[in-house]
Specification:
The structure is a homodimer of 564-residue chains. The first copy, chain A, has 564 residues and is α/β, with parallel strands linked by helices. Helices cover 43% and strands 18% of the residues of chain A. The longest helix of chain A has 28 residues. The relative contact order of chain A is 0.12. Chains A and B meet through strand 3, strand 4, helix 16, strand 19 and strand 20 of A and strand 3, strand 4, helix 16, strand 19 and strand 20 of B.
Chain lengths: 564, 564
């Protein structure tokens, strides 16, 4: 049976490798929760597993090194119920985590890459088979995502990203031969050397997960480090611990089952009052840092991680340029798609659009021009329509992860009222299932470019700016270059404009989606196909997933001796 | 004819790609100067070309941007004649170089990777066909290498390293598809997107070349940056300008011939009194830094290059562990090889062995033990023997590049006399062809581990320490981990010792050569086969050449739109 399982995992990794080459649509997982095998009972079991975690200590097996009694994670509060999850976690001393990881490393480093890949594919399978719905509920009640988004974005798509990282790690390692016979003449003597190469991991990696979307970046980062032989210490956000604790436990279980030391994967935990981030990054044993989170700490990591490698995804402002449409129907369809995408998880995604750039003369729709003011009003109306029905709002907007985001939305509304015109004031909708849920309906404001200080950074949450700009494309791409940006969206019924946009966004380094409408979220980034983050602007330096994301996580050491 | 030339270059790159896979011995170039086509007249023509450069301004065609009248490079003095070369070079303002490079970039960035590779293979061919011996003399009279080493190490081997970088750049770029059709269902709607990917260069790279071995690192670095679409500003050491100026001119000529802007490759020049290094690295347009040189500035680069990428090769102490030999003949052969290798170019190579570790009980030779003292004395005698014959010394030791190195050797001799025992005092030999040449015969000293402050760093120049260590392998690898090291050499007639050494050096990150004797220099690093620098210790972070050396020099930007 075991050999069959391994063979199935290898076949799946081969399929994923093929998908990364063709970049056509592929996933081994059903996209919709209803298509999960035996969905209803799996969901019920996952919910029960999640609920069984609440109000008690989370016990890692085996115990984490250096951990005293578990401490309550006071900042882990459900955005749906507004009640603390009440879970206590061990908070080990970080020296103990690094020491344990280093002690566990040599056997893992010496294992054949295929053996590590087999085990990590088994982790993917275990997360999917035994923990997916438990994770879905854990993500809902920490990050605040909707059930559907937690299943797709934080579940199966994140698993796809994890497999994709394994594909690239395998490819980078396969590029290095393990042995060779080398021959050459020196004078009249023929020298023959037998050479062998070892792939040596960097050491201990630290993986920071963010509060609103923990698994999607953390899983591929962990896989990239582990596949190449490193150990990983996970540092979740104090508000979103449970999804990563479950993750860490699954890795530990499978490592132990395979005879490796479970301390290859551990978890450090801190509080907002006593953050551990800098100490983890500057620890002498820290060799790799993966960071997803705030621009501020991300840039500190990039500047200070040395000699550790730093892979970051921080934040940026995602831009929309509205130029022209063939007809009213196309304009309406685009606005609906934009409104839905900007509302998804209340724009708490690194790919959510924020800034819409429109020329002072407005947008061309068919033979007519729609004035700047009317464009903004129509967009605000589309957003308002989405938020009107609580059932729909619950599915799309979901909840607000942090109290600070609510405060920011209100502050932005006040500032926009002074600097421009508020087209849609933020409010609250009552979640049909969780009346206490922390919710917020979108703010939309119309601004001129003189208000760049307002819109010239990521404003986390359901906030959209409609910006009057003489040259919308130039302005949008300038903002991306300067402030960062991951995604970009263009609507233009003019191939010359499209070509110019492709050139300008290529230079600015944002992934561009053109003239898309319909049921696909505009910011959907498909594993095996869409590259995520370019590294060409301040929104992060690491791409999910290219060779650069994996190739430096291991090094090559050589031994050579005269051939026998 | 042109198509044939391109086809020949592509065939050569394919052969090189194959060699990088098999890592067997291969080179398109003859290793010995005598085997160069029509060697005698080529050498004479190269010498004449070199001599025609002396005592006059070096004119780049077209002129470098932002350059005023050329200024004499006062620090460019032949280590052979001790006379200034008298060449004046333009010293452009670095803002002008960056601006010109940025202006030249877009067309180069937009060119197909194959077109860039064709052109860069033509540069390799032009350097080899039209400038090799001119470069050989330029290296001799700046770096101070022997004619043979300048031909091999700074000539054909460096060209091999350049091709090898192109192989890896091609491979990393080929891993990214340029277009795809992606399809997936969202609900009942099938979404089909046409996706295109552009490889976008980082921008302007700065390549620092070192004084003693400029081309071997700079050529592959330049190739890696240019192949992936970047521009390069070369910053030679003020004492070794000419080899890089000729290099830059060849790139400029071929770029212009192909219709690209020559300012894609330019040269910045400074003086020791007014160094430009920090300003180049911290320039807002600097996107990549390749640095070969001092540990001190290299570590500054690694810490401060952000947001630019940094690729460094600095320095380390290269270790030799003498454990056991099957018989006297093997011991003698090893000592001769070690003495030759440690004398090559007076140990002014980053791969030169420096520290020999011997147990207090000495070395086992056959059934007997040779005491620690006797090992040191025999090694010193082998070095003295090499330096005794000026003709041989000229071929092997060549000259000392810098006056500072002479001073260091004397200072080390004084300190070693106090801290331990000088086994061979440094002196001077008279070069048969250049009686004024700056020469130095090796210093050998025996020390205990209490003198770690003396031997615990690279001491640049003909300096060897024989170190009494209770556990030579543990001590040597500890020193490598702490202070850096590129190469390592082990002599052991015991497979258990060899296995332990391989494990310890793999962890320390030095490339290990075991039980080698004979005519091949022990530190010879063959392109297409030997990986150079692991990045696992402080001796540098970049490997010639692995995927990590090239994969992050370009980024991937995507555009997607509904399929027609």
């Amino acid at each position: 049976v075991k050999a069959e399982v391994v063979a199935a995992h290898r076949a799946r990794l081969d399929e994923a490798t093929h998908a990364c080459r063709t970049r056509e649509g592929w996933s081994p997982f059903p996209e919709l929760p209803g298509r999960y095998p035996d969905a209803e009972s799996a969901q019920a079991a996952g919910r029960a597993a999640f609920e069984a975690r609440l109000g008690r200590p989370f016990h890692f097996t085996p115990l984490l090194p250096g951990a005293a009694a578990p401490e309550a994670a006071r900042h882990e509060v459900s955005p749906y119920t507004r009640e603390p999850l009440g879970i206590a976690y061990p908070m080990p001393a970080i020296d103990a985590l690094f020491a344990a990881a280093e002690a566990a490393l040599p056997r893992w480093a010496d294992a054949a890459p295929e053996q590590r890949l087999d085990l990590l594919m088994a982790v993917v399978d275990r997360l999917y088979t035994d923990h997916l719905f438990e994770l879905v509920y854990a993500v809902m009640h920490t990050a605040g995502q909707s059930f559907n988004m937690a299943y797709a974005g934080s579940g199966v798509n994140a698993l796809d990203r994890a497999i994709e990282a394994l594909v690239h790690a395998r490819s980078a390692m396969a590029a290095v031969p393990r042995q060779a016979r080398w021959e050459r003449h020196f004078g009249s003597t023929r020298i023959a050397l037998d050479k062998t190469w070892r792939l040596v991991p960097r050491g201990v990696a630290v993986c920071f997960a963010c509060a609103s979307f923990p698994t999607w970046n953390a899983w591929p980062s962990m896989m990239a480090s582990l596949a190449t032989g490193n150990a990983v210490i996970v540092k979740p956000h104090p508000a979103t611990v449970l999804p990563m604790a479950i993750t860490v436990q699954v890795f530990r279980t499978l490592l132990a089952e395979a005879g490796f030391h479970p301390d290859l994967v551990t978890m450090a935990l801190d509080t907002p009052e006593a953050p551990l981030g800098q100490a983890l990054v500057k620890h002498p044993a820290c060799a790799i840092v993966d960071f997803t989170g705030s621009t501020r700490f991300g840039q500190w990591v990039e500047r200070n991680a040395h000699p550790a490698l730093a892979y970051t995804e921080t934040a940026g402002l995602n831009t929309v340029v509205l130029h022209s449409f063939p007809d009213e129907a196309a304009f309406d369809a685009a606005l609906r798609s934009l409104a839905t995408t900007a509302s998804l998880f209340s724009a708490q995604m690194c790919t959510s659009p924020q800034n819409l750039y429109v020329a002072p003369e407005g947008v061309r729709v068919g033979a007519h021009s729609l004035p700047f003011e009317a464009v903004g009003e129509r967009y605000a109306a589309a957003l308002a329509e989405l938020a009107r029905d609580p059932r729909r709002a619950a599915m799309i907007l979901a909840t607000i992860q942090s109290e600070a985001t609510l405060a920011l939305v209100q502050q932005m509304a006040d500032e926009c009222a002074r600097a421009g015109r508020v087209l849609l004031a933020p409010g609250r909708y009552v979640h049909p299932e969780f009346p206490q849920a922390r919710t917020c309906t979108p703010l939309v404001a119309a601004l001129g470019t003189e208000a760049r200080a307002l819109y010239g950074e990521e404003r986390f949450g359901p906030i959209s700016f409609v910006i009057r700009a003489a040259d919308p494309l130039a302005e949008a791409t300038r903002d991306v270059r300067e402030f960062g940006g991951l995604t970009a969206f263009l609507y233009a019924d003019d191939e010359a404009v499209i070509a110019r946009a492709e050139a300008l966004y290529a230079r600015a380094g944002a992934q561009l989606t053109i003239n898309l409408a319909g049921p696909m979220p505009l910011n959907f980034a498909a594993a095996y196909s869409d590259y995520h983050v370019t590294g060409l602007n301040p929104a992060g330096n690491a791409t999910l997933t290219d060779l650069a994301f994996v190739a430096a996580r291991f090094r090559i050491v050589q031994s050579r001796r005269p051939a026998a």
